[in-house]
Specification:
By secondary structure, the chain is an alpha+beta fold. It contains 13 helices and five strands. It has two domains: 178 residues, no CATH class; 115 residues, Heat Shock Protein 90 (2-Layer Sandwich). Strand 4 and strand 5 form a beta hairpin.
């Protein structure tokens, strides 16, 4: 058997290329990494100002004017490149990053080679810092080690001794700038992660509000539609104004209740009663001409499950009103389960809609499950189960739907 090592993309690896994508996702927003980009570029620009001292040292040397001018030009190009690399390098592709680091190394090492001075290799600290920023850590450390060893060997061969102060400056400044880049990298990723968490929270809240609105208004509007149709038929057939006014009065009550539920949902203070949902389902089913067979009491249901079971009864009854041609709707309750069945055609409702999907999410929040599909004896069946009770129950209470 071949073993495949699958690495977590968020896990740190010394061979991983630094991901500075948060700098280019939203360049106009400081929160997306723009602030860190400015800090990194500014730190490198300020540090590279020490190259002015190197230019003065070259100017006061005894070398030929042509060689001095060429060395000064290389130092100037190197300084400009070190200032621009932290700004443009992180957004470049891998090949572009390698080219940037290579060009900086050539520009930084050229004056030392041209003037035969190993001390000038100390200026490569800025190129090494850019390497730590743009290259995988493993490659950047190898490059730094090679630079330090090269300077030590060159000093030993050319001068017979090593200027450890210059070597310490090369290592120390590189470590400081590398730390600044690492902090900027970490802070930028934390800000990007925070923005993503904020977006996910907003999307989740939108989904929750949409689900609650469906649960609140779906049942009420379906029942109101049925009663309006009944009122119209009464007025068209018999003209019984008294009966029609009674239906309209019930409609007004239902509209007020729905409005109250919407307000409470928006305020996140809405509570739902299983008893009230059974009463509402009984009234709505009767108005639609469906005979309700509902329990008279809910005492056997565990307290912590009554609200979510109320949503189950509401959604199942709403589906009967909307999608079914049933003549009978039956609700059965247990301590940790509820079953709603009808004797309508199973071809009318063949897949889970938003309501059943929302019920599944609600039950999952309380470690429960939802089952729905054709009933054994015909019709449609919805069964919701909560987590198993912690205490023993009587056999009558423990009986579940089969």
């Amino acid at each position: 058997m071949i073993s495949v090592d699958v690495r977590d993309p968020d896990e740190f690896s010394a061979g991983q290329w630094p991901d500075w994508s948060f700098w280019k996702d939203r360049p106009d927003s400081p929160r997306a990494g723009g602030r860190g980009r400015v800090i990194a570029a500014t730190a490198t620009a300020l540090a590279s100002l020490t190259l002015i001292a190197r230019a003065e040292d070259i100017t006061h040397g005894t070398r030929s004017p042509l060689l001095t001018s060429l060395a000064l030009g290389l130092v100037a190009c190197y300084g400009i490149g070190c200032m621009l690399a932290p700004w443009y390098g992180p957004t470049a592709l891998r090949r572009g990053r390698v080219m940037i680091v290579a060009v900086l190394f050539l520009l930084g090492a050229a004056p030392a080679v041209l003037l035969a001075s190993p001390h000038y290799l100390t200026d490569l600290t800025y190129a090494l810092s850019i390497g730590l920023m743009l290259l995988p850590l493993r490659h950047a450390l190898l490059l730094g080690l090679a630079t330090v060893l090269g300077q030590i060997v060159w000093m030993r061969l050319a001068q017979g001794e090593v200027a450890w102060t210059q070597v310490a400056v090369l290592v120390g400044v590189t470590a400081v700038l590398g730390t600044v880049f690492a902090l900027s990298f970490t802070i930028g990723h934390l800000r990007a992660a925070r923005e993503q968490v904020r977006r996910l929270a907003v999307n989740e809240e939108r989904a929750r509000v949409a689900r609650d609105m469906h649960d609140v208004l779906g049942h009420s509007l379906s029942t109101m539609t049925v009663k309006l149709g009944l009122t119209r038929r009464i007025l068209e057939s018999s003209g019984d104004v008294t009966l029609a006014v009674g239906q309209i009065t019930e409609l007004e009550t239902m509209a007020r209740t729905a409005l109250s539920d919407v307000r409470a949902t928006i305020s996140d203070y809405r509570t739902l009663s299983l008893d009230s949902e059974l009463a509402g389902a009984r009234m709505a089913l009767r108005a639609a001409g469906v005979r309700p067979d509902l329990p008279a009491a809910t005492d056997s249901v565990r307290t912590e499950l009554r609200e979510v079971f109320g949503y189950v009864v509401r959604e199942a009854a709403t589906n009967v009103l909307r999608h079914s041609d049933a003549e009978l709707c039956t609700v059965r309750l247990g301590p940790d389960w509820v079953e709603v069945t009808d004797n309508g055609s199973t071809s009318v409702l063949t897949s889970a809609g938003n309501g059943l999907t929302g019920l599944t999410e609600r039950l999952a929040a309380v470690s429960g499950t939802l089952e729905h599909g054709p009933a054994p004896g015909g019709g449609f069946r919805v069964v919701a189960r909560g987590p198993a009770p912690a205490t023993g129950l009587s056999p009558a209470q423990e009986a579940e739907p089969t």
